Amino acid sequence: MPRLITVAAAQLGPIQRADSRGSVVARMLKLMEDAARERADLIVYPELALTTFFPRWYLEDRSQAEPWFESCMPGPETLPLFERARALGMAMSFGYAEATPVGQHFNSSVLVAATGQIVGKYRKIHLPGHVEHDPERTHQHLEKRYFEPGDLGFPVWNCLGGLVGMAICNDRRWPETWRVMGLQGVELVVLGFNTPSVNSQKAGEGLAERMFHHRLSLQAGAYQNATWVVAVAKAGVEDGHHLMGGTMIVDPEGRIVAELDHEADGLLVRTIDLDDTRFGKETIFDFKRHRRIEHYGLITKRTGVGAPLGKGGPEL
Ligand code: ING
Fold first, then answer.
1. CA distance 60 to 46
2. Cis link prior to 80 (omega < 30° from 0)?
3. pLDDT tens digits, 149-160
4. Residue 82 domain-assigned (yes or no)
5. How far apart are CA 64 and CA 82, in angstroms?
């Protein structure tokens, strides 16, 4: 019996620094109505979906970034999203900047059931970029200045009749992200991203290379863990800074089954069968049968590169 769910990847075009949250929520609600017309069970929005990608701006006084953060979820400006999604019987996921009551700051995402209840929260673990202003860079990428590394791990939740996990942007570049969810049996990973189309430290690396690494990361993660992936961009030019598109749906064999080819607000809707993950999980990536954890110790013992293990001669 197939386990079908209709997913809507809801790409957002650019959000300018001067744009109000209300104007962004209105755009998100329009996409939700469009998704409802296509009978979507789940709508997925990008990373930092409520604001411009503010980590590009250096603020001497970090407290000046507070207006970009949500101190409660839902809050007065995001409640309409929860209420409409519940009325439409649609689950949703979106990214936002989270300020906690005890003064922590995370790049977070929520998974909300069709009942309107938050079933899961994820806090971005792999934060790219830097803390202080870097004059060597063509543009700043200050996620390490404004956010702390996530402290919730990479959980997977029972939702929509399957096992759903979340990741955010840079997380997709790290195989550990995928494998930890794979070891929980994940069947669908939803992932928002805001990816600058140029490398601030490598002038020659432009959109084509960025898109290649984006696809490579998603396809590898999907294939090596036999999971569906819905990856959703915030795209376009924000205050002169270009974010790439690349909203796409990847199947458990690592194939890109659908992709948006523009950088505006837009939907990509597909009905996927979570049972399509079974073959990979029961054969080539039957982790219980094939993995050899006795040889993987370095992965959790070492953070950075250390001494090679080879003794410089035949090991036997
Ligand atoms: N953005 C980028 C991303 O990982 C980046 C940062 C781009 C890091 C390219 C390394 C290479 O897609 C976010 N928000 O993580």
1. 27
2. no
3. 999 999 999 999
4. yes
5. 28
Residue of the CA atom closest to atom 14 of ligand 1: 194
The average pLDDT across 279-306 equals: 98
Q: Which residues lie closer than 8 Å to 73 by C-beta, 6 or more apart? A: 96, 98, 110, 118
CATH number at residue 74: 3.60.110.10
Dihedrals phi, psi of 9, to nearest 5 degrees:
-85, 115
Q: Is the pLDDT assigned to residue 315 strictly greater than 90?
A: no
In a domain, 293, yes or no: yes
**Which helix (H) or strand (E) is 178 found in, with range?**
helix 175-182
- Pick from 64, 128, 121, 76: nearest CA to 98: 121
Q: Determine the residue type at 207.
A: L
Judge whether 159 counts as a catalytic residue.
no
Whether the predicted pLDDT of 314 surpasses 80? no
pLDDT tens column, 215-260: 999 999 999 999 999 999 999 999 999 999 999 999 999 999 999 9
- Is residue 193 in contact with ligand 1, taking CB distance under 6 Å? yes
In a domain, residue 165? The reply is: yes
Amino acid at 174: W
CA 41 to chain CA mean position, Å: 19
Is there an atom of ligand 1 within 6 Å of 217 CB? no
Please say if 169 is a catalytic residue.
Answer: yes
Q: Are 35 and 90 contacting, i.e. CB atoms less than 8 angstroms apart?
A: yes
Structural domains in the chain (count): 1
Q: Which atom of ligand 1 is nearest to the CA of 193?
A: 14
Specify if 310 maps to a domain: no
Stretch 61-86: mean pLDDT: 97
Which H or E run contains 68? none
| Ligand 1 pocket, residue 169 CB under 6 Å | yes
Enter the DSSP assignment of 92: E
- Give the structural domain span for 284: 4-301
| pLDDT band at residue 211 using 50, 70 and 90 as cut-offs | very high
